[in-house]
Fold:
Amino acid sequence: MIKDEAYYNSLDKRSKEYREWKAKQIIVIKEDVGVGDVIDKITTFTGIKQAIKSVTDDCGCDSRKDALNKLKLKRGIKARCFTEEEYNNYKEFRSTGTLKVLSNEQTNFVCRLYADVTGRPFWRPCGTCSPKPLINIIDALDVVYEAYE
Structure:
């Protein structure tokens, strides 16, 4: 028996089967994702890709996907302005901190400030992983800071 959307919508919303089905319905677009990959996911999800493949062997989808993947999507981050105290603290951090010698306290400060300014939950990257997430956080805070200059 092929189960369609109406079947899943008729299930108890608290059931495991419904939650698993619902989780598969969400398309997640991560940072730096190619436009071709996004279109491929959408056409696969909606059934368009399967319909086209039933009509023709080669529609040129793969070459179009490769060409469109040269265009990248970036997720935008909305941020509020610094308060005067945040501005002064970040100014002091910029004058004393470098990524190579960030103390635990400075890392916590930067992560807390980023969470407060962007309205996102507090998150601190682990110290043994790549420094890229911390660099991205500092870059985002630099953009807010430089808006005052």
User: Anything to note?
Assistant: The longest strand covers residues 33-34. The mean pLDDT is 76. Residues 31-75 form one domain.
